[in-house]
Amino acid sequence: MRHFHSISIGNVNLDGNLFLAPMAGYTDRAYRSLCLEKGASLAYTEMVSAEGLARNNEPTKDLAVRADNEKNLAVQLFGPDEDTIARSIDVVMKFNPQLLDINCGCPVPKVTRTGAGSALMKNPKTIGKMVSVLVKETGVPVTVKIRTGWDCSSMNYLECAEQAFDSGAAAVCMHARTKTQLYTPTAHWEYLTDLKKHFPDKVIIGSGDLFTAEDALAMFEQTGVDAVSFARGAIGNPFIFEETRALLEKGSYEEPSTEEKISALLIHLHRLCGLIGENRACREMRKHVSQYLKGVAGSVKVKRITSQAVTIGEYTEALNLLEY
Question: Which CATH class name applies to 7-250?
Fold first, then answer.
């Protein structure tokens, strides 16, 4: 079986099946643009509050702005019900998205206590209603991000997926853990296998514990999913997309050099500065540095210095301490 291939989600034709997952605080348009350059077939926005859009909140709307090289804009919305989603439609459609996603997987308490995110796993019919209103009112392909259930006593991913597909969803992405499991222990990929088995003719996207190209290959081989979605494994590692494609197509790949890692980090930083200003961008970038420099000799001192950096110059000086 050829694991890397083009894929269609509704009327959106993608040249590959390696996706960047939506991650709050990480998949802004600066980083999406970099991941797309490094081989991501599709990059989802951060979670965008449907309520915030409905209220015309400017910071919320900024999350839905297309990156310069983003051919297919995929906006992930979160909200507790179909009424909230419906009120956001006029605003979100002004950004001309090619795909809309409904977040039914975020486990963070500040999201779930509003009835959004993973809390929707408790109400499969509401998921269906949310899909229906988006499909009917936008004409844009709708995808849904779910987990396996709220907890181990309520594993209802098949019911949630059925509600989504019956209501017109073009694809379902599943993180193979329950809400209460958060991000540990190991993701249970066997539930992805089961999901694909029950919906063989639907697009199923796998997520959970994808930290290397080898992980992606294993997920394809073990589960039969149609696409994979990199989340934590893509933080500070835009190279994971080209590495995975090379592994799937050629059987091997070359890891990026220290010079390439530094170059990508600085490109990311400069783009972020262009969006939100130097001081704020340099502070935001600190959370990415340790991942970019993972495994790089002598990076401990650089990480310590950049944890206080507020200018591009300070980042550059710190990175120049590395030998490569």
Answer: alpha beta
